[in-house]
Amino acid sequence: MFETKSIRETCVQLDSDIDKGLTEKEAARRYEENGKNELKEPRKKTVVESFLEQLNDPLIYVLLAAAVISLLLHEISDAVIIAVVVLMNAVVGMIQEGKAQKALDSLKKLTSPHAYVIREGKEKEIPASQLVVGDIVCLDAGCQVPADLRLTRTSSLKVEESALTGESVPIEKDASFIAKGAGGGLRREAYEEKGMEAAGKKAAGNRKDTHIPLGDRYNMAFMSTIVTYGRGEGIVTATGMDTEIGKIASLINESHEELTPLQKRLGELGKILSLLSLLLCAALFMIALLQKRNLIEMLITAISLAVAAVPEGLPAVVTICLALSVTKMVKVHTIVRKLPSVETLGAVSVVCSDKTGTLTQNKMTVESCFTNQKIFGKKDLGKEEHKEFLKGMTLCNDGVLEGGERIGDPTELALLDLSARFGMRRDELEKEFPRTKELAFDSNRKMMSTFHQRGNQTVTYTKGAPDEVLKKCSSVLLYGRTVPLTEQQRKQIRQAVESMSSQALRTLAIAMRVGGSGPVEEGLTFVGMVGMKDPARPEAAGAVARFRDAGVSTVMITGDHVDTAFAIGKQLGIVSRPEQCLTGDAVAHLDEERFLQKLDTVRVFARVSPEHKVRIVKGFKAKGNIVAMTGDGVNDAPSLKAADIGIAMGMTGTDVAKQASDIILTDDNFATIEKAIVEGRGVYENIKKSVIFLLSSNLGEIMTMFLAVLCGLASPLKSSHILWINLITDSLPALALGVDNNDADGLMRRPPRDPKESLFAGGGLACTCFYGLLIAGISLAAFFTIPYAVILERQIPLTINNFATVLQHEAILNRAQTYAFTVLGMSQLFHAVGMRDVRKSIFKMKHFDNKLMIAACVLGFLLQFAVTEIPFLTAAFGTAHLTLREWLRLAFLASFPLLAHELMILFSFDFVRKGNRKQKLSAKTASEYML
């Protein structure tokens, strides 16, 4: 609003004096009325609230019920194990709590602790928290802006706003500038060292609406930004939560975290298992009434069956899988702050990336040079041939490169980087050619000059906007000789400026003047010109292409100008046509329906505010996408939090961005996201395998018991057998499946999975039912082996009643249950081996790539052996000793799941190949659609 008002209008509206400032009395009154210049904190959750929030999950309810049931069955150890699983999950969740609060804490650290103000005509230093609207604040190079200001005086003032706006270079400020908004007014001609962007800014200044992007408010300075050059004064227009950074804090605080796809699927699974447990208990109780059985005995059996329906190890397996994956991701420079985020990466279909510092290096670099009337790359420069060119950019420079420290304007640092390649250092050159006088840069001249003296020799070097420098030149340096500047040569220089500008390069001219007693900006000799830009990261283009092959769309969102964004986007392969770009101004004026339609084709958003970024992310989510948002600045924090996955840069990222994110890239490498997505897809595949394995195993247990009870027979398994298998025998193989290695290339050739996709999609339900029934079948076959042999020996009819009668004998029932228990336990181990890859024969699997599976199977067989052969365990579990012949016979029966796996591979090989081909075709179609 204040960017459209004159200095006088601003002072009148805020009731302040531009020279004397506020009185102490008035400042105190406003402070009392409006409070501190600080960001407000939301109410923090208590530890108890955070803990209870972690327990608010259907699967946790089922586990807690299972623990209670275990206590009723006097299985104290099982209840303790389940309680530990629940506690572990709750603690892990609590660690991730309060990220919004931490983000706000980081925002508060960014605010300046002290400010220099003019009150009652005197300059004084006060805590920044005591600033009030209407205060006159003094700014100098290196200071942090303490509040939002309408600038009243500027002297070569430049402010670095990249963390807030995404601009890659400091913004030159001008107190006399007035944006043309609803009230009209004057404006300055925006200074830019690049023609295209000057035109873009001119259009911004001439627009008739009241919304001006932050980067175009040249007469404003914003809280938390840094003054890099010059000095100025400004009147405070907003403090605390009313500032632009305060609005961002509000956006972060208002954002609500959503459940990840995996959490949603596990939540649904928990509800299904809860319902199934209740139905099983009710069904068995009804059967007990109909069969006139002992109700207490059947109640215990029903409870055991309900416990069998719950995979007690599943939450622990999922948590451990995610935790191990997090450890693996550290090796590829990725820190995961929230465990479920790993899995969510696998479903990402849109990566929204900030430009500055993410897709680009956030470091201005000289790309092209123009000397001797021709354009060439910086690699073609020669130290001797272009000596004056290099000396000019080095000496007419206020930047400092000392060791790893870089101080000054990014454009000046880019010039020092170039000259340093040829062994020229500013500090060393200035010893030889000391600077004695200078003309500082200002927005009217659009240039700066330095005067150097060496003995009786003097020289002036000038650098600035090419058009302005060229007006001051009367000669040109050609191959070391100074010759008069012709009109044809002027035309060539202007054409070179246009050529560089068309490539979104910022241009800067170098000129010189030999002799004189001081710097004079007339009769200059044109030496050359450079074209600079914030270059794209070299690995980013490859990552974008691989994302496209994987069905993942890359979208650039930046606060920079649209032409610069388009040039970078085209270079990286994100866009091919200008129509695929949209400005924040256009976003603000689109209704929701039209905006969502635009998201189908637009891949670059430029000149956007933090609010626009959030709207873009939410728009892609509304269209059914899983969205990852990358960024490094304060302005990225709300959108990082709004996205399904927020990815912050670890090296250049602000604390705010890191705290608002789910994942941090420690190498700031956009291509690292690809590795993270591969890991995410692999984690989901592994968790899906573990879930199907556990549920098919549990289904086998349920059907084994349910069918036997339904037929009026004794229970084939004791409750201790079920809990042993659930918590010991099948949890270890499930964990091994969860850390299995996957084919990375194969995973990235598939399109992203549908976020609504069930864990049982793609044949998962059929697989679960098939193996569950198969395991139940062979377990019942083992259970019937002993009574069948007795019936044959007694030569009595093979009837259900006779089976029931024989099983009433305690010794026979004990051995029959041992058979069923042994086959059930071992069959799940064999089943786990096949579940590593349902599309591949076990003879083609690389078994030593998963040593944990080998260890799990060996340990599982040893534990199963121990339960039947070690006396105190046989007494605890009520099992019988088995002979070697019995072990071999039962092992063959238990291997049926593995035999079935091989038969299905043999007869469905062509079908599997077709399925793979369909997946590749769908990925290709998705890629073509995005282009």
Describe how the helices and strands are arranged.
Blueprint: H1 7-14, H2 24-34, H3 47-54, H4 58-72, H5 76-95, H6 99-110, E1 114-119, E2 122-127, E3 136-140, E4 148-160, H7 162-165, E5 171-172, H8 195-206, E6 220-221, E7 226-238, H9 244-254, H10 261-290, H11 295-308, H12 314-330, E8 334-336, H13 340-345, E9 350-354, H14 355-359, E10 365-371, E11 374-377, H15 387-395, E12 400-402, E13 405-407, H16 410-420, H17 426-432, E14 435-442, E15 447-454, E16 457-464, H18 466-471, E17 473-478, E18 481-484, H19 487-502, E19 506-514, E20 524-533, H20 540-549, E21 553-557, H21 562-572, E22 581-583, H22 584-589, H23 592-598, E23 604-606, H24 610-622, E24 627-631, H25 637-642, E25 645-649, H26 655-660, E26 663-665, H27 672-710, H28 719-729, H29 731-738, H30 744-747, H31 764-794, H32 800-806, H33 810-834, H34 851-869, H35 871-877, H36 884-894, H37 896-907, H38 909-930
Helix pairs in contact: 3-5, 4-5, 4-10, 6-9, 10-11, 10-27, 11-28, 12-27, 12-29, 15-16, 27-29, 27-31, 27-33, 28-33, 29-34, 31-33, 33-34, 33-36, 33-37, 34-35
Describe the structure.
By secondary structure, the protein is an alpha+beta fold. 51% of the residues lie in helices and 16% in strands. The chain contains 38 helices and 26 strands. Strands 10, 11, 14, 15, 16, 17, 18, 19 and 20 form a nine-stranded mixed sheet that branches. A hairpin with a 2-residue loop joins strand 17 and strand 18. The radius of gyration is 36 Å and the shape is elongated. Mean pLDDT is 81; it is low at 96-101, 182-209 and 909-931.
